[in-house]
Amino acid sequence: MRGRLSLISPLLGLVVICACQPEPEPTPTPPDMRPLLAAYEAQEGHLDQAAALQIAEGLGGHLTTIFEVMRLFTELIAALSAGEEDTQQQSQGLATRRSALSFAADGWGRLTRRCPGVPGEAARGALKVTAIFDAQVGLGETLWGESEACRFEGDDGPRQFDGRIALRMLKDDAGIVNGYLFEFSGAITTNTTTQHQIDFQLLENNILLLRQEVERGKFLIGLDLSGDPFSTSTLPLFIRDSGGDWRCGLDQSMISGTCDGPNGESFSWP
Asked: Which residues fall within 8 angstroms of residue 10, CB to CB, at 6 or more apart?
């Protein structure tokens, strides 16, 4: 995936919810993402060269998968916000709206969107999302659903996603959305099919946050994606341990240079 990643604005136009249903279904219950959100604050252990080596060993392949899932979300969110070829399941008398944060009634809705697909193939699959609305606060914090045989063209061939998806909006003290927590659990098919359990945060300043647990502890990885994550230049990187943030560099998915700790300590990385 190339270029800047910015999901804050497109998502606000994602939901298109429609008019009445004679016998409304019970309001569905969103998944509880609070434990996952809390896990981003649960760092254990101290970063040193040995721990950095363990992190580096798993980071490359993990990043590749993260970027695949991120591409799924960015492409589909952009497509959904465009409002083409959408179908709606009507729910509890909601009026059709394009402004996702303005509602005249409480309720919920489901949106089904065909995926981008692969050139030359008729089958495209679909992304199905459920959202809850409140007349006082607007769009609920969590959107969730399924990716069903969702296909799109990757950098090196077709991709297919089948599994559960969930998104939680992150808000500041004033209630303004400033990032998202994503979760995907299911299968990714390229030449082969592999099962994945993936989560990450993407903040409004294009900071990508990843959790990584290794033998020497639980760490939070932060990457600045303001530039091109696949360029040959070193990406700004921080690694948060139980004591604070270490500033390092990332070159082609490998930690490089010197890591400087929160208390003036440092170690070199070949």
From this structure: 74, 77, 78, 81
Phi, psi dihedral angles at 257 (to 5 degrees): 80, -140
Residue 86 pLDDT > 50, yes or no? no
* Model pLDDT for residues 90-141, shown as the tens digit of each residue: 333 333 333 333 445 578 888 787 888 899 999 999 888 888 887 776 778 8
User: Alpha-carbon distance 95 to 111, whole Å?
Assistant: 14
Rg (CA), the chain: 20
CA-closest candidate to residue 210, choices 76, 61, 74: 61
Side chain identity, residue 80: L
Give the CA count within 13 Å in the CB-facing half-sphere of 139: 28
pTM over 0.85: no
pLDDT in tens, 150-178: 998 887 789 899 999 999 989 888 888 89
Question: Could you give the angle at the alpha carbon of 183 between the alpha carbons of 69 and 51, nearest 5°?
Answer: 85
For residue 168, count CB atoms less than 10 angstroms from its CB and return exposed for 0-12, middle for 13-18, buried for 19 or more: buried
Q: Which residues pair with 160 in a beta bridge?
A: 151, 189
